Amino acid sequence: MIFKRAVKILAIIFVFITIVTPLFSQRKFDIQGTGKQILDGEIIYLSYRNEGRYILDSTFVKNNSFKFEGIIENIPIRASLYRNQNSTHNYDFIYDRLSLYLEEGIISVQSMDSLNNARISGTAVNNTFQLLQERLALLEKERLSIKDPDYFSEEERKDTALVNKNRSLLEANYYKQCDVQLAFAKEFSNSYVSLDLVNNIARNNKYNHLAEEVFNLLSDSLLQLPKAAVTKEFFLNKNKVRIGSIAPEFEMNDRFGRNIKLSNYRGKYLLLDFWASWCLPCRQEHPNLIAVYDDFKGANFDILSVSIDSKKDKWLNAIIEDGLIWSQISDLKASNGEVYQKYGIGTIPCNFLLDPHGKVIAKDLKGQDLTDKIKEVVNMQANMY
């Protein structure tokens, strides 16, 4: 009888431990914000993702202060604060916002004016993140001084020289920031901020190999985290088709229903281009592709574009709108398509330059880099004969 009772008590304790243990793995965050020009009655929004769920919270400013509390798991979560603008309405037009990390402890947000200029402190990850912001400050000031062509008026958009100039300046600024971020990640190889930086930069085709080098220098504790596993898988996919390897064969129907094989293009230089109708950077690159095609199509060069669209009408309309006259193919399976998986496509636009034997000789060329490379290989071929 006593034995049975003891067993029952032990079972109850086991169940209790099983239920309660996950709770102890959770952590409470506490954001305390102040700002002399953040006025009473204004609304501060907090948004983040926790275990796959999108969470949006809000609070009113009182005595030039605001506060948020919540529960998260052990791993820090990147979050954003917005002043008077709900991020679910139109994220692109939120003017006063601040990024930070949700983690256990009191997170201090202090500002003399706006959220944009606030300082974050109080917890380990946020202290490191604030240091990163300080190192990026001059470049961020430069970025804000360049008007994004996406926000140009109709009249400004008519000035194609200005549009191209501003796009080039913004792209150059972005890569400068990437350089600073990768150097920072290398220096602070034990910080979760660094894992986040590498994970984000890895999505940029031009910087993928540099991001992988820094990723391999991160601490063992960071490399054991779920985000590191995702990043590692991304690198493995990106390396499926390397420079110097033969591009994997595939076949797919074009927009007219005709079967197209990659091997049909053997004997000429080929730009294998991956894009989608919904991808704005892809479509912004189309004028450059058109110029390259017009300049070199008679010089043993061609382009084959693979769309990762899922809706045929949107794909076909984009082809017409952008004036694309070379072969366009798609299986309309988006990222589930066999070719997408076979080539390890992670982000678009993405391209592979193949030589006449089908060997990859360059990857992810854009703008002037693409023009220069095509000119180089075409001229080199001409000099051989």
TrEMBL record:
Domain of life according to the entry: Bacteria
NAD as UniProt keyword: no
Alphabetized Pfam families for the sequence: AhpC-TSA (PF00578), DUF4369 (PF14289)
Domain Thioredoxin: 241-383
TM helices/strands, residue ranges: none
PANTHER family, A to Z: THIOL:DISULFIDE INTERCHANGE PROTEIN DSBE
Keyword annotations: Cytochrome c-type biogenesis, Disulfide bond, Redox-active center
Compartments where found: Cell envelope
Main location: other
Organism: Sphingobacterium anhuiense
Transferase in keyword set: no
Protein name: Redoxin domain-containing protein
